[in-house]
Amino acid sequence: MTSQKTSAAQQRAAKAKYKGKNSRPSKSGRWLWFVVGMGGIAIVSGLAGALLAVSWESTPLQQAQLSPQEEAVFDGDRISGNGLQFSQLTRPVNILLLGMSVLPPDVQNAPTESKNLGYQPQINSFDGLSDVMLLIKFDPETKKIVMLSVPRDTRTEIEGHGVKKINAANVDGGPALTAKTVSNLLGGVGVDRYVRINVLGVSKLIEALGGVNVYVPKDMKYRDDSQHLYINLKAGQQHLNGEQALQLLRYRHDELGDIGRIQRQQMVLRALIEQSLNPTTITRLPDILNVVKENIDTNLSVEELIALIGFGSKTSRSNMQMLMLPGRFSENREFDASYWVPDRRAIGKLISQHFDSEAKTELQSSDPSHLRVAIQDSTGSDRSQLRPLIKTLEKAGYTNVFISKLWGQPLEVTHIVAQQGDGNSAESIRSLLGFGEVRVESTGNISSDISIQVGKDWFQNQAIFQNSTRP
Q1: What is the pTM of this model?
Q2: SS3 assignment, position 160
Q3: Which end of the chain is least crowded, N or C, by CB within 10 Å?
């Protein structure tokens, strides 16, 4: 495998040298995208339409020039089939997604138009800090998509640069060093490909998708004249355009800081997936990518991109799981800066459950007495009305149950959130209660293992629990 990677990397390096060190691949030749009219292939692949380019193996969205050593960081083996199976994902694939915030001081030669403005604008570059970091696993064996959020303030070793916040890895060494750093942090998990999208591209992408319907959890107001960053959102269910959605994604000025922002990112991601990942959107993919192509950098080929999107369009929403790197906030004066301190033991458990393709053991639910279960009411009811629910859990052995902060979004159906990725334990609680839906994501109480976000369906079952808990 190593020789194949090196050979491919050398071929790409030779091509780059022939074109000139500072030149970039010509977009005019490669961006001949159009919707395929081959109905048979579309049916087989599960796509209503597909993309074509001059070469299936070309990387028309790649902006970075990686050295052979940097390219070798990523697994270059095929991830999709041949012939009529071109859009079939053939093996588990890990994609590193980086959301970039780039200001003029982050780049050596900032654009002239960004100077002398009296403020620092976001610019179209990929050289800055990675404000968002997701490792996404597409797994055709389990038919699941797992998204692991890595907080930007995670304290870790960056090879050759010492212990720092992980978002600095891109500044120090681009996508390759970031991929290596993430892999080391997660105990050697491989990274197959990367995608970088900057702030300007995120806004354009959401706008091209028609905006997003999402619940804004609270009023958000923030002003930073130095960046012309103005956030002004009202709480409640609403339709956000690209700029408004970006405000929601960037807001981090509350008690949870970047962790609260990750939770909101997961909410927006789920909403975008539910409303956009469908055949209609896929047929528009060439136009959508054309809008954001200058703001995206990825070493995914056209063929690989189609395979990933095809897999995603066929994946059940219940099989889309969103996790967060286990850890804790650093204490005052513990380090020279504030960090998210990784929990190595919990990380190992999470990786073995969700990213280790070799693990064949049947995963069991955790001991109920060891689980921290948070109750978050979304109905506005009196706390006393939740006592039958708590007593039922305690009777079943869940001895560490506590009432947490209210869940702001009114829910029709109770969410049983596997905050630490333990979907089996969440399913056990759902089976015990007999209502609600399990969600493997990190939107609950960060100190819990399972968060029960109580919805209106609780009232339909309340009488049953009251009778069952009477002496």
Answers
A1: 0.84
A2: coil
A3: C
